[in-house]
Design a protein that fits this description.
Elements lengths: L1 E4 L9 H5 L5 E4 L2 E4 L8 H5 L5 E4 L14 E5 L1 E2 L2 E2 L1 H17 L3 E7 L6 H6 L4 E6 L8 H15 L3 E5 L2 H14 L3 E5 L1 E4 L5 E7 L4 E5 L7 E5 L16 E4 L31 E5 L9 H11 L2 E4 L1 H5 L20 E5 L5 H7 L4 E6 L12 E4 L2 H14 L1
Parallel strand pairs: 5-8, 5-10, 8-9, 9-16, 10-15, 11-15, 17-18, 17-19, 19-20, 20-21
Antiparallel strand pairs: 1-4, 2-3, 6-7, 12-13, 13-14
Helix pairs in contact: 5-6, 7-10
């Protein structure tokens, strides 16, 4: 879009100057001049009594949708091991591809990753495009996005899915810009209508509503999907599929940055994204040192330590432990919430767990509305009792 001042209509009345909330309009002589910081908000258009300011909408280029077919899932791997979010994407992608009567393909980028293609086929893929080179040993968004966007332009998938992980959130927005399409981030639901419109559902306004977003004029339709919200299909080793080894161009290998070292955070307990049992602490713990209680219970159960955003923001525990809309989505078999009131942002990230146990001294805390079992009481008394009991088991 662009904004125009029609000289033959402008009188220099300064109404637009007063209306601009950003102070980007001045009057030179008898002509309004709009600055480079204009946000195209349209306030000046409404204020002008002479119709001297217009916002011009550029016509969207026509796209032949018939050229686009198939669903792609970007396979995430670390050190050659396919991450579980990939199989969740394949589960969601399989349903979409079957609905469209098209193929589901996995895009596997890395070094020495060809052996993992069979896992992806067993997980639901019809095709696996393997991009294997030393340059892809460590994830870097520049070469990864360059090669992925080139493959999208060449083969024209109708839908591209990726995990809403640290890697996916870095990679896919760049790809969307490079291929000229839209992107819906952090989806918690996907479906498709008879016309091939991908219905992309995600939390909005702090999780208070669920918005369904469409991409009606561009292809491919791209979305990142939150970890642990989709179900992976049972692995089927008998499935047959096609493996395509992608030939690289020299331009694909060009990298301006170099990975010097990768430091992983050492954890005493399991990773919350993969754990079957999670014990989370919130503001009710009152102090960072009290997270030792949560850790002790998690160790007794063989689980992971989670946290609410309030605890993370207070600096009591690192962000990698945060459960919720702005943290990680978990799908534990057992989730124990200790001193967490149950703000909607936290509930979005854990309410799909199989069994939820809430410990809170406030009987009216919102967490009890989603809890399978609720314990009203002092967590400083209850958690040690639980640990002691588990020690005897």
């Amino acid at each position: 879009m662009s904004i125009l001042v029609l000289e033959e209509k402008c009188t220099g009345c300064r109404l637009c100057v007063k209306a601009c909330p950003f102070g980007e309009i001045s009057v030179e002589g008898k002509l309004a001049v709009i600055g480079d910081g204009c946000t195209l908000c349209g306030a000046c258009v409404s204020a002008c009594e002479f119709g001297a300011i217009e916002i011009e909408v550029e016509r969207t280029r026509e796209i032949d949708f018939s050229q686009y077919s198939g669903v792609w899932a970007v396979a995430e791997q670390k050190k050659g091991k396919v991450q579980s979010v990939t199989f969740e994407l394949l589960g969601a992608g399989r349903e979409l591809a079957d609905r469209r009567g098209s193929e589901l393909s996995a895009i596997l980028i890395g070094r020495r990753v060809a052996d993992a293609a069979g896992e992806l086929i067993a997980g639901g893929a019809d095709n696996v495009y393997v991009v294997d080179s030393p340059v892809f040993e460590q994830f870097q968004d520049e070469p990864y996005s360059r090669v992925l966007s080139r493959l999208i332009v060449k083969w024209k998938p109708e839908i591209v899915l990726a995990g809403a992980t640290a890697i996916g959130r870095s990679l896919i927005p760049r790809v969307a810009v490079m291929v000229g399409t839209g992107l819906t981030a952090d989806c918690t639901g996907l479906s498709i209508d008879d016309d091939g419109q991908l219905l992309q559902t995600r939390p909005a306004f702090g999780g208070n509503i669920m918005a369904t977003i469409l991409t009606p004029r561009h292809r491919p339709q791209m979305a990142t999907v939150r970890h642990k919200v989709m179900r992976a299909l049972p692995s089927d080793a008998s499935r047959q599929g096609k493996v395509v080894h992608v030939e690289l161009k020299e331009s694909d290998k060009f990298v301006r940055a170099k990975v010097v070292d990768f430091v992983e955070e050492e954890e005493k307990t399991a990773n919350i994204a993969e754990a079957d049992v999670i014990v989370s602490g919130g503001r009710g713990l009152q102090a960072p040192e009290n997270f030792s209680l949560v850790e002790e219970l998690a160790l007794a159960l063989g689980g992971a330590v989670g946290a609410s955003r309030a605890a993370v923001d207070a600096g009591w525990i690192p962000y990698s432990h945060q459960v919720g809309q702005t943290g990680k989505t978990v799908q534990a078999k057992l989730y124990i919430a200790c001193g967490i009131s149950g703000a909607i942002q936290h509930l979005v990230g854990m309410q799909s767990s199989d069994v939820i146990v809430a410990i809170n001294k406030d009987p009216y805390a919102p967490i009890f509305q989603v809890a399978t079992y609720g314990i009203v009481g002092d967590l400083f008394e209850i958690i040690p009792m639980m640990v002691k009991k588990l020690g005897r088991a």
